[in-house]
Design a protein that fits this description.
Helix Hairpins, binds copper (II) ion, Immunoglobulin-like, five-stranded mixed β-sheet, alpha+beta, elongated
């Protein structure tokens, strides 16, 4: 948690922890008060309950606190959203096509693979479309996910700052083999990526090696 192959990991994990933390505190607090009231106000012999009519102070407090909490969740969520959606103009663009049940990655120089290869430390923008039903491109380790919608182009951006290979899953139920619609993103050092990118003969080889895992 909080550390990973993209800058989004910290942002997303912090928002997650913030929301879950508030929820847990509220759950425990409300449960404790409920249990306390059950004992304090249970039916006693010779004791008549009294009606209470309104309290401006209490009502203001229980409207104000949840409003502030919810707006703060929205604020931190929005900061993260901005970070995810603002992709530098000079990002490397890769066309992604989703189909039942595989991914195609198309590079500007005509290279096509079924594994996503990206250079280390460079912003990447995935331009995604589907040729059949709705899919969703999800890279858990990068904390990014975006639906790939039939008849509409969507995008996703990231900068990988760690060499390695990470799972790509389809996160939108898309039919029989949805659960097998996996591939990988392979992050390579710049020089290695450049030689892969410019070497036509290597295409097939790397596609196959990417598929093995
Ligand atoms: Cu799918």
């Amino acid at each position: 948690m909080f550390e990973g192959p993209t800058g989004h990991v910290e942002t997303v994990d912090l928002v997650m922890l913030y929301i879950v933390g508030i929820s847990v505190i509220l759950l425990l607090g409300i449960t404790a008060v409920m249990v306390y009231f059950v004992f304090k106000y249970h039916r006693k012999h010779g004791h008549k309950p009294k009606d209470i009519h309104g309290s401006i102070l209490l009502e203001t407090i229980w409207i104000a606190i949840p409003t502030v909490l919810v707006l703060s969740m929205f604020y931190f969520g929005y900061i993260g959203y901005e970070e995810l959606r603002n992709i530098p103009d000079d990002a490397m663009k890769i066309d992604v096509t989703a189909r039942m049940w595989e991914w195609d990655f198309n590079y500007d120089n005509g290279k096509q693979t079924d594994t996503l290869f990206v250079p280390l430390g460079q912003p990447v923008k995935l331009l995604m479309k589907s040729v059949d039903v709705n899919h969703s491109l999800y890279i858990p380790a990068f904390r990014i996910k975006e639906d790939v919608i039939a008849g509409k182009e969507t995008f996703l951006g990231f900068t990988a700052d760690r060499v390695g290979d990470f799972d790509i899953a389809c996160a939108e139920y898309c039919g029989l083999n949805h659960s097998m619609m996996y591939t990988k993103v392979i992050v390579m050092p710049n020089d290695e990526f450049a030689s892969w990118y410019n070497d036509e003969s290597e295409v097939k080889n790397l596609v196959e090696s990417g598929k093995e895992e």
